[in-house]
């Protein structure tokens, strides 16, 4: 029996081999094994809560959670139902290595019909770091310009804080949270919702999907005000010390200011009137200078477009008067505008009059006694006395020497004037 089995053993082995080969050829001819390559296969991360529950966050590095190519070997018939969606690639965080890498496992949802699979990459690399939270005050910024004659007022939001969370390295860079509103061409108030943006200390925008915010948008209101330029009027009270006089008008550093407010309010404003009591020169013997805050004198619901105009410097120039004595001929005093039908004469007038002229140096420096002629203007005197028609009698009348404005005589010259009717012949 044994001899029968071993007889021509080599020939039998060759026959068996050719029989197997023939079986393979016949089998492959019916449904041969082929390979096919699929691209961009996503890798699903499993058990990521093992990282997040420990107060950490992770980032997939270098897009290693996408496999460039996966080659599949399977019978030709399998590929009629196999596509990229049937390929399952997973990486389990519980198998994280000390180098923060996870091995990729491949499978399909077609059971055992696939003979084998090969991927162009076999690991997912993670960057893991601590998670940090931060609360930021919400800031606002406007872009663009409103129409000429208008001003941007208060910008307010319905939330003033935003909470962010994310990788410590990114959150540490975030310095502010801000909303931007475009005001180009507006002439009335703006109400809108705006996206909250995150910036670093150099105002560079930070956009990272790993950073979360408790709110993404916020309601914003921008007040738009009309502007109007108006004069500021100053005055003063009191009188300087005896022998001193105010020179010129009160001076202010700003003749006008620009106001801002709603148009229906500004339409009733023509100037800013500062109470005279704010500039009191009583008893002063030198220039008065002060700084007045005009904000408290603005109309209700009106404010300064430029806050730097709030305090305005004012000055009142005060100068000492001097006295100069001039000798004037008394006989040179004449009477003017005698009423028709009357005659007028003056008495108690000395031949030489010593006048003490009081004024500022520049006002009396050019005065000469030869140029000073005394006059009694009866028409002017009657107007001052409220007299409509002349009446006979003796009157005390002051002599006018035609002095310049603001120059006076310390002791005015008073004469007796006799006014009498002309008798008819």
Description:
This protein is mainly beta. The chain has seven helices and 28 strands. It has helices at residues 2-6, 9-30, 49-52, 168-171, 263-266, 361-364, 378-385; strands at residues 33-46, 56-60, 66-75, 87-92, 101-103, 105-108, 116-119, 123-143, 150-157, 161-167, 174-182, 190-200, 212-213, 217-233, 244-252, 256-261, 272-273, 288-293, 302-304, 311-320, 322-329, 334-336, 342-347, 352-359, 375-377, 393-398, 408-409, 414-421. Strands 2, 5, 8, 9, 10, 11, 12, 13, 14, 16, 17 and 19 form a twelve-stranded mixed β-sheet that branches. Strands 6-4-1-3-7 form a five-stranded mixed β-sheet, with no helix packed on it. The longest helix is centred in the N-terminal third of the chain and has 22 residues, at 9-30.
Key terms:
425 residues, mainly beta, five-stranded mixed β-sheet, 7 helices, 28 strands, 12% helix
Low-confidence stretches: none
The whole-number mean of residue pLDDT values reads: 89
Task: Please estimate the helix content.
Answer: 10-25%
Query: Structural class, from helix and strand content?
Result: mainly beta
Largest sheet: 12 strands, mixed
Count of strand segments: 28
Give the helices and strands, then pairings.
Layout: H1 2-6, H2 9-30, E1 33-46, H3 49-52, E2 56-60, E3 66-75, E4 87-92, E5 101-103, E6 105-108, E7 116-119, E8 123-143, E9 150-157, E10 161-167, H4 168-171, E11 174-182, E12 190-200, E13 212-213, E14 217-233, E15 244-252, E16 256-261, H5 263-266, E17 272-273, E18 288-293, E19 302-304, E20 311-320, E21 322-329, E22 334-336, E23 342-347, E24 352-359, H6 361-364, E25 375-377, H7 378-385, E26 393-398, E27 408-409, E28 414-421
Parallel strand pairs: 1-4, 8-11, 14-17, 22-25
Antiparallel strand pairs: 1-3, 2-8, 3-7, 4-6, 5-8, 8-10, 9-14, 10-13, 11-12, 12-14, 14-16, 15-20, 16-19, 18-20, 21-24, 23-28, 24-27, 26-28
């Amino acid at each position: 029996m044994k001899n029968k089995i071993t007889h021509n053993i080599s020939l039998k082995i060759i026959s068996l081999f050719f029989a197997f080969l023939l079986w393979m050829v016949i089998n492959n001819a019916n449904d041969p094994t082929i390979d096919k390559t699929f691209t961009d296969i996503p890798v699903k991360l499993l058990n990521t809560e093992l990282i997040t529950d420990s107060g950490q966050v992770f980032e997939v590095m270098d897009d290693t959670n996408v496999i460039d190519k996966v080659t599949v070997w399977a019978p030709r018939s399998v590929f009629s139902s196999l596509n990229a969606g049937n390929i399952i690639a997973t990486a389990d965080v519980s198998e994280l290595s000390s180098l923060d890498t996870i091995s990729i496992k491949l499978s399909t949802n077609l059971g055992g019909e696939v003979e084998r699979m090969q991927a162009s990459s076999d690991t997912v690399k993670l960057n893991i770091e601590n998670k940090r939270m931060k609360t930021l005050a919400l800031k606002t910024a406007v872009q663009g310009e409103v129409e000429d004659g208008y001003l941007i007022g208060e910008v307010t939001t319905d939330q003033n804080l935003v909470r962010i969370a994310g990788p410590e390295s990114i959150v540490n860079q975030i310095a502010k949270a801000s909303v931007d509103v475009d005001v180009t061409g507006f002439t009335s108030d703006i109400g809108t919702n705006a996206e909250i943006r995150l910036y670093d200390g150099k105002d560079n925008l930070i956009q990272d999907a790993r950073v979360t915010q408790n709110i993404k948008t916020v309601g914003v209101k921008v007040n738009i005000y009309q502007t109007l330029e108006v004069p500021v009027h100053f005055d003063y009270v009191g009188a300087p010390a005896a022998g001193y006089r105010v020179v010129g008008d009160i001076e202010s550093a700003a003749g006008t200011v620009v106001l801002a407010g709603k148009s229906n309010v500004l339409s009733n404003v023509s100037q800013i009137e500062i109470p005279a009591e704010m500039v009191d020169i009583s008893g002063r013997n030198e220039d008065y200078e002060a700084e007045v805050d005009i904000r408290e004198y603005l109309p209700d619901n009106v404010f300064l477009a430029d806050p730097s105009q709030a305090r305005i410097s004012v000055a009142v120039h005060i100068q000492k008067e001097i006295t100069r004595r001039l000798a004037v001929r008394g006989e040179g005093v004449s009477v003017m505008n005698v009423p028709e039908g009357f005659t007028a004469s003056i008495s108690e007038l000395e031949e030489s009059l010593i006048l003490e002229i009081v004024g500022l140096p520049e006002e009396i420096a050019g005065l000469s006694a030869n140029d000073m002629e005394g006059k009694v203007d009866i028409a002017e005197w009657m107007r001052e006395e409220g007299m409509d028609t002349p009446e006979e009698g003796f009157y005390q009348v002051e002599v006018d020497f035609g002095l310049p404005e603001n120059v006076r005589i310390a002791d005015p010259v008073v004469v007796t004037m006799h006014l009498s009717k002309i008798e008819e012949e």
